[in-house]
Amino acid sequence: MFWNDVYKGTPPWDLDRPQPAFQALIQSGEIKPGRALDIGCGRGENAIMLAMNGCDATGIDLAENAISDAKTKAIERHVKLNFVVGNVLQMDRLFTEGEFDVVIDSGLFHVMMDEERPVFAQQVHRILKNGGKYFMLCFSDKEPGEYELPRRVSKAEIESTFSPLFNIIYIKDVAFDSLLNPSSRKAYLLSATRS
Ligand SMILES: C[S@@+](CC[C@H](N)C(=O)[O-])C[C@H]1O[C@@H](n2cnc3c(N)ncnc32)[C@H](O)[C@@H]1O
């Protein structure tokens, strides 16, 4: 499987530290202690940060290799949280409706195909409490390099995917750190609440 193979090495997003955009959300108090889910959590740095800041945190990812490494990391750092292997497009099989106060997404939405986007939005909506928060970090269309993956996402695409089910609070210009040169990519941060 593509995603499992990626984690046999170190992919460019695998910083071994949390993304600064999510650290800032904790510092600003936008993410507060509560039930939190990191979707497409990879090797778990952002989920571990949530747990270290008072959240009852879970990370989910399709890649067994990544989840196995995330579990090892959490044990080594003495941080308690859950990691599960699973498909975010089928979260109704794993989580109950309204289970989470906050869902974070660091680079997952931007790998979804067009036809997956409405299902993705419905799945995130379903697992959030009424008024629950969704924070999503994706490459923006301001980042140069038309054909390089992942796809660049426009504000209009974010709005059309999420506004049917969420109240959009803001879509901000932020940086997406990576191990590549240049190390920081142009990104959007979406803050939305379940409507
Ligand atoms: C760009 S990586 C970001 C990983 C992590 N959030 C980080 O910041 O290091 C996207 C992640 O989404 C996962 N992924 C892709 N499609 C998925 C799906 N349908 N369900 C769950 N995880 C998925 C991949 O395995 C990969 O770990």
UniProtKB/TrEMBL annotation:
Keywords noted in UniProt: Methyltransferase, S-adenosyl-L-methionine, Transferase
Broadest EC class assigned to this enzyme: transferase
Secretion signal span: none
PROSITE patterns tied to this protein: SAM_MT_TPMT
Domain of life: Archaea
UniProt cross-references to InterPro entries, sorted A to Z: Methyltransf_25, SAM-dependent_MTases_sf, TPMT
E.C. no: 2.1.-.-
Keyword S-adenosyl-L-methionine attached: yes
Domain Methyltransferase: 37-132
SUPFAM superfamilies in the record: S-adenosyl-L-methionine-dependent methyltransferases
GO BP terms, alphabetized: methylation
Pfam families: Methyltransf_25 (PF13649)
Name of the featured protein: Class I SAM-dependent methyltransferase
Originating species: Methanosarcina baikalica
High-level lineage: Archaea, Methanobacteriati, Methanobacteriota, Stenosarchaea group, Methanomicrobia
